[in-house]
Amino acid sequence: MRRLFTWPRLLLLVLLIAIGGLLHAAWPFLFYPTTTLSFDIPAPRPATIQNGNLAGVAEVDITPAIGLPKFGYSAWARGANGFRTRLKARAFYLHGAGQTPMALVQLDLGAGSLPLQYAVAERIATTTDIPAHALSLLVTHTHSGPGQYLGSDFYNVFGSQSPGFDPVLFDFLAERISQAVIEAYRARRPARFASGQSEVWGLTRNRSLGAWARNHRLPEQQWTEERALEAVNPRMSQLRIDLMADDGRYYPAGALTLFSIHGTAIPAFTRPYHADVWHWLAQGIEPAGKPLPWRFVHGTVQATHGDNNPAWTAGLRGDREARRIGTALGGQANALFQRLGNELRDDLHTAVASRELDLLTLDEEQRHGLCERPVVGAAVAGAANGDEVFPISYLPYLKEGWPRTVFTDGCQGVKQWMLSKLQLALAPARYPHRALFQVLRVNDLVLVALPWEITLESGNRIRAAVSATLPDPDWSVVISSLANGYFGYATTEEEYGAQYYEGGHTLYGPHTVDFLSAQSARLSDDLFQKGNQNQHPGHATFVLRSHRYWPEPPPERTWSRQWQGEARYSEGDTTHEPYWRWRFRGEPAAALPLHQPLMAVVDEASGKVLVDDDSGDLQLLLVEDQGLGGALYEVRWYTPPKPGHSGDRALHILAGAAPRLVSPIF
User: Fold this and answer.
1) Where are the domains positioned within the chain?
2) Does residue 489 have a known ligand-binding role?
3) Which end of the chain is more exposed for a tag (fewer CB within 10 A), N or C?
4) 505 in a labelled binding site
5) Does pLDDT of 49 surpass 90?
């Protein structure tokens, strides 16, 4: 009998698969249309002359449309079919008397974006007094937010499960974030401030312990789980802001908290938008003296998280663990906030230095060993610890700890090149190469904002380099990863040598941290020796391969809604909490604005809202979309009272493109 598979046929099959894979990867770079973004940021409004110090805070929803690709898990991500928690932009406006106004903006996004920073700066210039160089976009690095808004073709293609820059999503984000900054500016009032730090242990662990251990030459027998829980950045840093109300008294208004934890408690292959642990952390502060004259705003952003994961319980990763870890972090943030209430002061001293560098055109003396072109390592395909996918993550060449042993004298050293020299066919300009460095001072807090994912030890070295430039030792230096852009990872030379996921994803080679340390220290030294530094060009052009994923709006009309069956209760499972479930037919997904209030559970007797969709307890899921024929949705109320609870509760689907729909009492 003739054999179906012979060695020549198997080799031919492997060759065809390889060619198909290469064509699939190359297709967007070759054939997608381009979108050109051009910016020429005007000067902002003149800063107000004032005697005291002003601050303002604001929060705006940035949850985008259903159906978009999601950033963070690359090919293992899935398109969004709704949301579990909303995504937010939280803006903090600061203006010390006679100083440069600044805006720190927290985003529930996977990474910053340099063109997004330009777009927001351009939109706010005519309305606020915030100059472009004093605007900083800081992120949570959730892996359950949208992609397709970044500043490089490389990450717009490979950062999500679908390729291409989405100009409609980009405009949506730019408009919503700008609205948050403008609202914070308009809400400015006399303010008091306090900043401080605490330590948090037991909620994070080092996911790449073998690579980290090389920094300290620890033998493998010491790579224990106990050590993984110790090899983390425990510092939680916070800026507290109280504002003066109309009655002349000061009340809590906002806080900005920085902590080192990956936004990965929600795993790959899940679909709803989710702010991950950061949602629960942001909800954790409970200001004293309620009711407040305004809505309290708590922004939460990354510090040096590159190898620090949430310490989820094995086998339970998902919604339950995201809530448990995030809630515990929120409790720690609340304790720090309450402590800072005793340290509030009226004075505000701010300063800002921004410098944009093109990594492809730097002089040799500015490179500090940085490679001339970026290269992605094969270990990136193997994925990070905790996100392995069988069998890819376990194959030689792709799995962690598989550094090159020959031909290691090039700039990229021991990195196994993904696709070998074929990677040279992708021009260096398609990778991220324009980086915005920022050093921002707020009283004794020095924030270093960098567009890399920075590991624990890398952060320690950058922090030490910056601290050495400061005039005295009483400063809190905090590094914030992924600010204003995305350049992959920054590992130490020792960690890079292990070629774990983080080392393979350090695009510009083993001396990336040397470069970041030197440039950050130089910028800090310039700030404290010479004063504010504005080396933000203010004008730029980005040409990006594009594809629209944002759904086309349906014809304007009033849609109908109908319940599909009765409310049902589910006990949940190991990763999901108990919930009530409803289904209804209504408008097409393209007509449903996820950034607006959509759902609430109401006590019909009193009219009191028991829970709304800002809480993280009401989830909306698209079950089936029939275009102009409407869509089927599912709503879940998580962690409700158990069945048998007496009351007059009803679920409300709020009016929008269709009239309000109210469920039967349950």
Assistant:
1) 38-350+438-490+537-545, 562-662
2) yes
3) N
4) no
5) no
